[in-house]
Amino acid sequence: MADQVIAAHWSDADLVVLAGGVGADGRRLPSSGWMALRRLGWGAVAPAGVVVSDRVRRIAEEEAARALRLGSHRRAVVAALLATWPADPFARTGDEWSALRATLPEGCDTATIRNRTRQITAYLGVHGRLPAGLFELERQPTVARQVSLAAADRQQVVVDWTDGRMVRVWSQLPVCAAPGSYRDWLWHAFDVVLPPTVPTGVKVCTPTLRPRDGRVRVDLPWQTSHTPVPARGHARGLGVDWGVNTLLTATVADLDQDGCVVVDGRPLRFDATGVSAKLVRLRRLREHLRTKADHLTRLRDGRPAHAHADPALTGKLARLEAEHAAVCARIRHLNHALAWSAARWLVDHAAGAGTTVIYVENLATLEAHGRSRSLNRRLSGAVRGAVFTAVAHLAAKAGIAVVTVPARGTSSGCPCCGGVVTHVKTPDRSVAGYRWATCSCGLSLDRDHAAAQRIAARGLANQTKARRDRSGQATIRTATDTPVRRRARRATPTTTTRPARDRRKTAPTRKQTRPTGETSRLLPLRRQVPAPTEPPPGSAGKRPAGRTPQEINPTGPVRQVPHTVSTTTPRHPHRERGAALGRGFHRHVHATPTTQRDSGTGGMPRLPRST
Predict the structure, then answer these.
(1) Phi-psi region of 265 (alpha: psi -120 to 50; beta: other; left: phi over 0)
(2) Distance between CA atoms of residues 292 and 121, nearest Å
(3) What average pLDDT score do residues 57-69 get?
(4) N or C, where is the chain less crowded by C-beta within 10 Å?
(5) CA-to-CA distance for 1 and 56, rounded, in angstroms?
């Protein structure tokens, strides 16, 4: 039913009417999709011989309205690109960018412009001309196999709590593929067990049903009360920098009364190099399996039509497809675990430090091109989007704001003086590299740590420029860099109370007495150990230097040790202490432990320690 509505109104004139937001009677169209289509007279019609209720038609009209509204937005983007098409679309000048931005719809990002430009360029290369609009570039969209019960009311679906961890969903569904009367529609009840992450007593919303692989999957959203944190008026913030080797590097910064940004100089790192290497190996395996499967598919399709199918070829292709699906699932699960672990670590540090805002650089338009194959693969497979979504979710629950700042120049500029930094491998070597940043002002700091300080300074100094987009995300689009200064270190009691040891040689060294009963850890002197009078039985004197003698024909289960392996020290498997201490979800994740810190100059209250 939804596909029929889309096919009937997939035209330029109808999308213009829908994008205008005004019906034929001059009234503004409702925000609900199914109500807007009914106001325009584009209601869904049931197939011949099928009886459905008005609520079922609402569900189909809601799906069609979402697809048509998305198509109207894409139509406006394509029309703006075609109206301002330059001579070189991948190297626009400043005036060409200004003209394009003036015609684009609101909220269009750079990634959408790049993707639509590539689409138009591909059409131009095939047909030798520019398309007339969106309808020559794309066919009409199809609706996914899902049932959005949110468009119906309680006469179609009812959601009730049964106990603290289970929700019962009542829905009126057909018992056959083509119901001929209302007697073929019956009420079905199914219980949904909630995971432990869902709090007890929250508001459970209407679910969405998705049939797949002979089963019905239930997307059950839930809501909890939340007060949006303002994006302005913060005195202490946490600046976060994304990295390739180190996933997250953060630092705490304060805004003093004079408007200066002060940092404490302590870096906070979430190093997931081991997990990233594992993901790279899995992606290589996935690409290898996909290449083999494509090759076998070409061999299968290239056989003559009258030839019989090769069972060995078909079975091998099925095994490759199953292995490819398993590797893809493993990558998804590992990315999900990595993203939420990093987000939980970051929010715990923000709460422990008493910060009220987290500043993250906006890398939504980061492209992986122009680099090596390995770096392009690592950038393309990064989990930054999932980490940002998890951080926004967990920070909202903790009452912490999340604001994005411009990413340009965060790693190439000095946080202290604003000059251009030099990237070297190590602080004591001037060889060009990635890890370390030095500046003529005397800065010598880790590259990601310096970028995190610059991000925190941009966010705290430009709070008045923060704006929220249509999705509610706070963003600072243009920022002015402010120099940061290091907070003076407080003297520790160890350095102030312990007296200095007198190292002058003015008298004989006093003889030290060893407690009775304590054995020395040093080896005894040679003269203190008498030499054996007779050699031990079975020994033939000192063995000459060389490898350990090996028995040619051992009588029992004797382990033959090669000469390259030490016969005195046992071998133990590699174990990471960070995972044993509970600092990460994976044994190859090294993260700064969360500790309670004082409020400092920001005047923030002390929060309970996060574990």
Answers:
(1) left
(2) 31
(3) 94
(4) C
(5) 10
Q: Which of 48, 87, 448 is nearest to 247 (CA)?
A: 448
**What are the residues whose beta carbons fall under 8 Å from the beta carbon of 189, sequence distance 6 or more?**
168, 169, 170
User: What are the backbone angles phi and psi of residue 349, rounded to the nearest 5°?
Assistant: -65, -40
Cα R_g (the chain), whole angstroms: 34
Q: Which two tokens stand for residue 487?
A: 């907070």
- Cβ atoms within 10 Å of 463's Cβ, excluding its own: 19
Q: What is the total residue count of the chain?
A: 611
| pLDDT at residue 376 in the model | 64
Tokens 């029929």 sit at which residue?
4
Whether the model clears a pTM of 0.85, i.e. scores above it, the answer is: no
255 touches 486 (CB < 8 A): no
CA-based nearest residue to 599, from 264, 345, 240, 347:
264
Give all strands (DSSP E) within 232-340, no chain letters.
236-242, 248-255, 261-263, 268-271
In this predicted structure, what is the pLDDT of residue 554?
A: 58
- List of residues 6+ apart from 361 with CB closer than 8 A: 240, 241, 242, 404, 405, 406, 407, 410, 451, 455
**Most distant CA pair in the chain, distance:** 118
Non-local (6+) Cβ contacts of 429 within 8 A are none
Given this model, what pLDDT does residue 7 score? 93
For the record, the structure tokens of 517 come out as 């009963």
d(Cα 401, Cα 386) in Å, to the nearest integer? Answer: 17
Q: At 254, list the tokens.
A: 């304060």
Q: At 562, is the pLDDT very low, low, confident or very high (cuts 50, 70, 90)?
A: very low
Sketch the domain layout of the chain as residue ranges. Answer: 2-137, 147-223, 236-302+310-486
Q: Residue 241 is encoded by which pair of tokens?
A: 């920098």
DSSP state of 176: S
Residue 334 CA to residue 50 CA, distance in Å, equals 45
The residue type at 402? V
Structure tokens at 429: 């070597």
CA-angle at 243, arms to 241 and 246, nearest 5° = 110
Q: How many CA atoms lie within 13 A of 262 on its CB side?
A: 15
Least-confidence region, from 12-16, 128-132, 251-255, 419-423: 419-423
Pairing of strands 474-475, 401-405: parallel
